[in-house]
Amino acid sequence: MKEIWGETLTMERAGEKKRRRGQDHVGGRSIRSLAEAIILQSMEDMWNTAHRNESLQFFGGEGFDICAELAGLGPDEQKKIIGMLAEPKLGR
Question: Would you state the pLDDT for residue 85?
Answer without folding.
Answer: 84
